Amino acid sequence: MMISTRGRYALRVMLDLAQHKDESEYIPMKEVAARQDISLKYLEKILPLLVKEKLVEGVHGKGGGYRLTRRPDEYVVGEIIRLTEGNLAPVSCLECEEVTCERKDDCLTIPMWTKLDTMINDFFDSITLDDLLNKKVKV
Questions:
Q1: Which residues 6+ apart lie within 8 Å of 130 measured at CB?
Q2: What pTM value is reported for the model?
């Protein structure tokens, strides 16, 4: 599994909005782009996805920008990563329940891949934006 630039940037954007949040203000996209060293063109692809899924809200025009729709402790990293990356399954046979491998019933490795899939999702779902902001994730 490799998290793409899109997934990493979406997480950085969410963290930036959390760091600079003010209940009454929207943060302009160009400020986020400058602080995070991400091109505006790239952010124009990421932010609409976050708005569509209601992770952030956006307002156009003077005084416009973006802000979180929830508190940082209410966002789990897994939600953000899955939104941008899709399923985090380590092997294709676990990507979708509708796609089944004809060897699944006899596969000796499927329990291992299933456990890894669970570990990955549990790991990302155990970390909030607040945890990252407050450096609560230890190596």
A1: 18, 71, 72, 73, 136
A2: 0.88
